[in-house]
Design brief:
CATH architecture of the domain at 10-183 and 223-250 and 288-301: 3-Layer(aba) Sandwich
Shape: globular
Strand content: 15-25%
Strand order of the largest sheet: 3-2-1-4-5-6-11
Distance between the termini: 33 Å
Structural class: alpha/beta
Length: about 325
Amino acid sequence: MTELPKGIRSVLVTGGCGFVGINLVTSLASRCNRIRVFDDLSSGDLRALKREWSIRKSTTRLEFIRGDVRERQVVEDALRDVDAVVHLAAQPGVISSIENPSFDYSVNVLGTFNVLEAARNSEIRKVVFASSNAAAGKQTPPVSETVAPHPASPYGASKLAAEGYCSAYHEAFGIGTIVLRFANAYGPHSTHKTSVIARFLSLSLSGTPLTIYGDGSQTRDFVHVEDLCQAILLALAEEAPSGAYQIGTGVETSVNELISTIEQIVGRNLPRRHLPARHGEVVRTYLDISKARALLGYSPQFSLKEGLENTYRWFLNRVRTS
């Protein structure tokens, strides 16, 4: 069990009612005295967070502030009296960033700047920023932190710009900034996500054909949300050096292989339909996670099949109880 340093007694989680946020907040429950969740609830689920929290029966104090990371004063207020920040709040979609790059910029770049500036003003010494492999963009895999970034979408560009501010605030103001470049995440509480695994599991339960963009040979590195939470907890540790880290599994999986694994789990063949490949999406990628292994002690625990089984059970239970 990863313990937080004694100096971190209270943690602010922006986007704490989102998919990763709910899983992280429940993971933090036994590790600090107070957790403050900051979310605008545009896609987050406060009821789901409260439901999971009640199951934990934790003595940790849970606070909630509704707010937008683009509003400087609201962010300043939210960061008062906390020891560390995990910044998850974001506009997360490649396609939506192409449709509205201005909104993508305002949330991901301006929002991150506001968090860092508020951390500086409040003398907070540790900020963990949830970035994305989209910041690296088009690369020959496996993708490491040493390659020159080539974002293929406004989303990737916004994450890269935010990473730059994290680096600058570390060098200029001494704030410990850990950038975690997430691979394609999946797991419980992702029913509202448009990511491929969440979409495929939802469609498999409804009997609707799976939509595949292109021929299905495109590849990704799929990482379970509990492994992401492990990386975040490790990043909060005092000895974690500032910088960027690729967080995935190091395993390359095609969309066709993903569907075959889901079919094994659900016990039947799933109908499919193909549409043209989408602009702005990387064709092939997976991550080199050796830096995170060496410097953070990160070690992913879920194989794809184990993680999909865990996620499918959660989706199935949600359908049965809804």
